[in-house]
Amino acid sequence: xxxxxxxxxxxxxxxxxxxxxxxxxxxxxxxxxxxxxxxxxxxxxxxxxxxxxxxxxxxxxxxxxxxxxxxxxxxxxxxxxxxxxxxxxxxxxxxxxxxxxxxxxxxxxxxxxxxxxxxxxxxxxxxxxxxxxxxxxxxxxxxxxxxxxxxxxxxxxxxxxxxxxxxxxxxxxxxxxxxxxxxxxxxxxxxxxxxxxxxxxxxxxxxxxxxxxxxxxxx
Length: 219
Known about the structure:
Shape: elongated
Helix content: 25-40%
Oligomer: single chain
Strand content: 15-25%
Distance between the termini: 33 Å
Structural class: alpha+beta
Mean pLDDT: 92
Number of strands: 9
């Protein structure tokens, strides 16, 4: 039987035994050692897929850890690792976008932050996002991506910062101009437990919050 590597799909050969008596294998290509079956669930092949699925279904960290029977610390590290390998989508030129902000907090309610993101009007896909204070710097991170893609039109709400950051010919503020992204805000608060209103669930780390959003938006 040919054993394929979990990391590079290369051919593996026998390489002694683990301390628990299980057969150990070594990849001939990447030289990494591994087993066919693992006792601890975090090392199983389907764990990352399950983490992605449960995260997108809105489960919190402790709920996901209980279901997968792994530690919460391992789960947090795995979420950040998964998000690190997610590539930002490539924007098409000449598209129309909607931009909006969604308020939440990190660690405690006095530490307010804003999720700023851009939605492509036709496909309803999120093309860029940023998390930070409600300042020009946070908004610019998203808007620069749209400018580089030569956006045809950018719809926003009446926040005055947009008037200084977006070219007047490209910018539009009108009724129902941001109806798709406003509906997306409601979907986000419904799907992600950490964004729910009137709940005891909240984000304790900005890095994990960014990783969760990457998984939700781009997988």
